[in-house]
């Protein structure tokens, strides 16, 4: 996904500020936000800086630039609060209810700072605390005595206090006098916690009690086709769970298991959660790859929605697995072989039958000659569904609907195309399928007018002063994929372009072949696994 800004017309529904010149905040070419005279002078000064001649001078420059970064962070905090105040006033003038004012300011801060909406809201909260309640911490930021992260620690550890107590803690610690010079993160957190507890011990205790309600499980991608599964738990449950896994790993290794302690713990966790040895359960795992990568051994990477890019060889190995992987079997080695380079048998032992809605299911045959349905014979079902893209642009072919809500096929289509939330700089999972031009304003239920958004971004888009518009098609070299624009209440416009599908680069190259040698359309394969065939397509 790509994000950029461009000038836009006046906002609708919110009074414009005639005394605020647009030229200083508009967007320039190449997606760079237009700079005011002062920030342009600062940027020019930094661009003209030359590294010092010796190591001592270089270290001095590093320190001075770090101080400058802190000062800039302090100024950004003040500007963010000024934006918040101005937006709330504009919304009040427009008759927006008090409870609804300022809800989208965090999203505007995020776009301006090229951050996710969640990060933007946290930055706005940090700015409010620094400017209105913690002047000494803000001064330390301006002076370079604290960086933005350590200022965040001070704000975070005083979040449970009242405004008056937070200000008192800031006054007691006086970060702008060098209190925390040479201190690490833990020392700063400990000092702030102690000061906060002295001011209001009950609030600190209540905060710990409320923290239990934040328990959750999350997942995020890791390098090399791995992922982090994280659980936020109360300390006693977390310690008990870890102790059980540790004892089991020690027992298994004592019996001669060759796996490492960490491997045994990870495998045991998966087995006990899924209830299946090896962790293969009947859930859907979508996989998007080109037909060339699947059938011809092409090196074009594949993509797993919600995870990202994976090597094509890894994807092919995944799809050729016939039986659940034994946790004790080394990677790349089939359980029935001892050759590390061997692959599960394919070919005559495999069969392909028709699947629903044009899909096909593949897998090994049973003794009667039919596809094996016994879980002992088949690790999972593989459903194939074709996705077509335009040869000249690499964009998925669209489909339309006259209904108010997107159909199941359209939702799968949008998920395959957008991958994650389409708001610039936001990579949260898709939760809502949104009309770019709202339905109540005449927006059609089409793939072109549809976008995958996270819940927060979809609600932000409905706030007063926000607008979205589909972008007309452009020459392939300038606008190859699905694009729409988002305009904020301040009049800044950002463009969102769908991420490239696997094989897009090759498609563009083939678009330059003479017409008589050019294929009319390119076919891609979308593969999934699970027990609900109608859901196994992207």
TrEMBL record:
Q: Where is this region: Disordered?
A: 1-36, 319-373, 462-482, 510-538
| HNH nuclease domain: residues covered | 409-459
Q: Which CDD domains match?
A: HNHc (cd00085)
Family that this chain belongs to: Belongs to the Rv1128c/1148c/1588c/1702c/1945/3466 family.
Q: What is this protein called?
A: DUF222 domain-containing protein
The record lists the organism as: Arthrobacter flavus
Taxonomic classification, please?
Bacteria, Bacillati, Actinomycetota, Actinomycetes, Micrococcales
